[in-house]
Amino acid sequence: MHTLRAVHTSDMPGPLPDGEPVPGDGSLPAAALTDVGARGFGVYVHVPFCASRCGYCDFNTYTASELGGGASREGYADAVLAELALAARVLDNPPARVDTVFVGGGTPTLLDPDDLARILEGIDATWGLAADAEVTTEANPESVTPRSLQRLRKAGYTRISLGMQSAAPGVLQVLERRHTAGRAPQAATEARESGFDHVNLDLIYGTPGESAEDFAASLAAATGAGVDHVSAYALIVEDGTRMAARMRRGELPYPDDDVAADRYLAADAALGAAGLSWYEVSNWAATPAARCRHNLLYWTGGDWWGLGPGAHSHVGGVRWWNVKHPAAYAARLADGVSPGQARELLTETDRHTEDVMLRVRLADGLPLAALDAPGLAGARRAHDDGLLDPAAYAAGRVVLTLRGRLLADAVVRDLLP
Fold first, then answer.
1. Same domain for 281 and 415?
2. Residue 328 falls inside a structural domain
3. Whether residues 284 and 370 fall in one domain
4. In a domain, 310, yes or no
5. Most buried of the four, 51, 368, 410, 413, by CB within 10 Å?
6. How remote is the C-alpha of 292 from its chain's centroid?
7. Which among 240, 238, 227 has a CA at the least distance from the CA of 276?
8. Residue-wise burial string across 261-300, b where 16 or more C-beta atoms lie within 10 A, e elsewhere
9. What angle do CA 120, 163, 412 make, to 5 degrees?
């Protein structure tokens, strides 16, 4: 079963990686600035606040009791705008436009809609939003109302991604979600009625205690809500979470790969029957226009600046990440210092590896011409094993079959040195 998650590369779970120091002024090597945005340019905004912590969550988020001094929701937009001003100084050869904005978390909609509007206005004033820019915010279903959704839409947000996870009360309880089983589809309907162009529902499958019937009901509820995008991810249990501790104590069983594979097949069948087609291993959309352009920018090697604590950025082959705690983040910016904790300069080998890892997961696939001789031999083996689409292979592309999607990680390993 595939295990690579299509989570935001700007907010990966767990500890931050090592790397070389980021200069105090945030400056980038000259070579990184020569063609910014040639493959598209996006802005990710991390909002690290949550009303409560779900038992499976290992992302860089904080409840009110975990924040401590020096950070607050009320002053957060100002800190983000301070980093944006720093970004404008660093990118003195700026992108032609901002193609996508994605506000993730955490629970971005715990901020007042006026703050989310100010952040978007700041991005537009700094670099200019494209006329057709995709602007997404994540939200928990219980954190939005018809009125707040209308205010977000008026502010320029065009897409919303709601954390549904499941329609089964028992599964929601195990995941420690706060919303009721019916709230996510209701919030999706409210978002559509508020004028959002695109609405996504996130599902998690393979939760301990989830039955096939539970997941079928979740799929039916998601498709019945009239959304044009669904993301479905296998539960991954991260070390350090409450769920991991419960599993170590024997209170919950560990996820089962065979069950996860069955759930994935059920998702693909149900979503396909509802008119949604896969375009990335864990994502289905009703039309090409409904695909998440921001994530596609990540997956196809675009540039983006990640604003906020723990956010990752990538510009011109340089990747860097900010300090994780909101108080440390705000303090650095108040001192006029970059919040970047460390960075890495990607080699050509690094970039090739990531390109293969990510593009293989896309329905558009990867050109065979992008592979070296060992990779081509691996592609031939994958084709002969029924993991690659024969017609696409004959046309010179690596495209996964349904069985190949279940074994995506294994295919990737066979294509790389």
1. no
2. no
3. no
4. no
5. 368
6. 10
7. 227
8. bbbbebbbebbeebebbbbbbbbbbbeeebbbbbbbbbbe
9. 95
Burial of 20 (0-12, 13-18, 19+ CB in 10 A): exposed
CATH code, 50? 3.80.30.20
Whether 13 and 276 have beta carbons less than 8 Å apart is answered as: no
Q: What does the alpha-carbon distance between residue 101 and residue 281 come to, in Å, rounded to a whole number?
A: 22
Tokens of 286: 């009703």
| Nearest to 318, CA basis, from 295, 351, 296 | 351
Residue range 213-252, pLDDT digits in tens: 999 999 999 999 999 999 999 998 888 888 888 989 999 9
pLDDT in tens, 103-154: 999 999 999 999 999 999 999 999 999 999 999 999 999 999 999 999 999 9
Which residue type occupies 130?
A: A
Give the tens place of pLDDT for each residue, 53-97.
787 777 888 877 777 766 788 899 999 999 999 999 999 889 999
CATH code of the domain in which 364 resides: 1.10.10
Q: How far apart are CA 392 and CA 362, in angstroms?
A: 13
**For residues 308 and 47, is the Cβ–Cβ distance under 8 A?**
yes
pTM, full prediction: 0.94
